[in-house]
């Protein structure tokens, strides 16, 4: 079928099948781009695809094997949803799942963007009801995660009354399977807490990180909660042993190693020196969160805490061979031994020159970092050192993913998707996608790039 015929046929299909919105409704409101992909049977994204968590896997690698090399980019579809999408869309088979700040979860047909189902989970919290912050309203912020064992999509909501709730939805129809109260930090101000980091599913548990609002106001402490994916009762948690702050807020959330141990980054805490308080760190936690197995903190953790220059702005990236990379606000990139993170000043190697926010990605030992003065490639050498290979222009600094020999990232200020050559950072292709949040990161699925926007999801076709 030709390009024009495809667009016409899809519009007819949408008109024939649309219905009104509401909980669990099947309203087909995606807008196919004129001259979109030809033929529904061969449309980009029609084949089964897998991107079930932030950056596709629990090591947070952000690498899509078999993704096509970019020659040209074209608009595939746009799904306008009921609120801003801050987290990455996840993909399971032929369906993409996206969650909004209006506390609504959507299942979208990957090939067409047609709405399969939607589920509204409550009323989000307006900024006026919070002591500080920069998201208005505040609903679902962290990237969802999918559990293949129970075929459940998990999200964490913030709803009126400032309640944080884990919700598990049947991936097929959006039916609510379980809910769990996540406000488990005793004696703290839940209005000062925010769930921003991505969720992770591993070993029959779903992990949910918590930090504070922009501005670090109120009496909060960072913690990681875990609930059973099979509906079993109870929520376990690990809280940073600091008097205040120590948020686990990095957008990439916790990473989970092959052993099931959980790695998470922690922001600045209350202590400015003297006895170490567990903040400004990377933690390795047991799967049930009952024990801190090891940790890393910079030698100058106290001064970093005093200046809000901490490691909490990115999450850990796990590498082959048990290594871990972390970068933060100071401009230091650290290579750690994941089996023993090294304690205070115990890094294996470090490199200056990347103030980093968001999520990293990798292809083998090539690391791609969202640095504030331009995305960078840094390689882990055979001798265990870190070596900078290239730096992108300063406006291209979004959280990257890798596929088809390209690094996919965003100019988040201008709302432009860029594909850079993995080898040398040169620009290959770019496409305007609309307004996005500061930490937006694309999803690679089939031959589509899905971009979360302030109005929904935009799908770009790669040819």
UniProtKB/TrEMBL annotation:
* Domain Pyrrolo-quinoline quinone repeat, residue spans: 76-208
Quote the SMART domains the UniProt record gives: PQQ
Q: Which residues form a coiled coil?
A: none
The segments labelled Disordered in the record are: 23-51
Q: Which Gene3D superfamilies match?
A: YVTN repeat-like/Quinoprotein amine dehydrogenase
Q: Where is the composition biased (Low complexity)?
A: 39-50
- Family annotation (PANTHER family): CELL SURFACE PROTEIN (PTHR34512), OUTER MEMBRANE PROTEIN ASSEMBLY FACTOR BAMB (PTHR34512:SF30)
Entry protein name: Pyrrolo-quinoline quinone repeat domain-containing protein
């Amino acid at each position: 079928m030709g390009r024009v015929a495809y667009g016409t046929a899809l519009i007819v299909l949408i008109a024939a099948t649309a219905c009104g919105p509401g909980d669990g409704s099947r309203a087909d409101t995606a807008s196919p781009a004129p001259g979109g992909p030809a033929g529904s049977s061969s449309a980009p994204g029609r084949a089964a695809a897998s991107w079930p968590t932030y950056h596709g896997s629990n090591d947070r690698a952000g690498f899509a094997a078999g993704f096509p090399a970019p020659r040209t980019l074209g608009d595939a579809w746009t799904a306008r949803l009921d609120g801003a999408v801050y987290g990455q869309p996840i993909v399971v088979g032929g369906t993409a799942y996206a969650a909004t700040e209006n506390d609504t979860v959507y299942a979208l047909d990957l090939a067409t963007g047609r709405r399969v189902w939607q589920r509204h989970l409550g009323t989000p919290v307006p900024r006026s009801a919070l002591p500080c912050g920069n998201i208005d309203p505040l609903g679902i912020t962290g990237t969802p995660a999918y559990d293949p064992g129970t075929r459940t999509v998990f999200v964490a909501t913030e709803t009126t009354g400032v309640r944080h709730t884990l919700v598990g939805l049947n991936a097929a129809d959006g039916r609510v399977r379980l809910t769990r109260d996540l406000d488990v930090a005793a004696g703290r101000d839940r209005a000062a807490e925010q769930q921003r980091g991505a969720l992770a599913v591993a070993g029959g548990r779903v992990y949910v990180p918590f930090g504070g609002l922009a501005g670090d106001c109120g009496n909060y402490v960072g913690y990681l909660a875990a609930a059973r994916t099979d509906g079993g009762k109870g929520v376990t948690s690990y809280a940073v042993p600091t008097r205040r702050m120590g948020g686990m807020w990095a957008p990439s959330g916790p990473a989970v190693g092959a052993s099931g141990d959980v790695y998470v980054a922690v922001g600045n805490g209350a202590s400015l020196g003297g006895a170490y308080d567990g903040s400004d760190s990377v933690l390795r936690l047991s799967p049930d969160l009952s024990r801190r197995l090891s940790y890393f903190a910079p030698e100058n953790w106290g001064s970093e805490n005093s200046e809000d220059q901490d490691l909490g702005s990115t999450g850990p990236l796990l590498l082959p061979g048990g290594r871990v990379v972390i970068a933060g606000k100071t401009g230091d990139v650290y290579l750690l031994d994941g089996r023993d993170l090294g304690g205070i000043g115990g890094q294996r190697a470090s490199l200056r020159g990347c103030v980093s926010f968001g999520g990293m990605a990798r292809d083998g030992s090539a690391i791609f970092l969202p640095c504030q003065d331009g995305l960078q490639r840094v390689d882990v050498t055979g001798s265990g050192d870190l070596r900078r290979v290239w730096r992108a222009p300063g406006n291209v600094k979004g959280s990257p993913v890798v596929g088809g020999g390209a690094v996919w990232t965003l100019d988040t200020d201008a709302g432009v998707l860029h594909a850079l050559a993995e080898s040398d950072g040169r620009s290959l292709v770019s496409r305007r996608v609309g307004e996005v949040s500061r930490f937006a990161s694309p999803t690679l699925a089939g031959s589509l790039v899905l971009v979360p926007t302030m109005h929904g999801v935009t799908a770009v076709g790669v040819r």
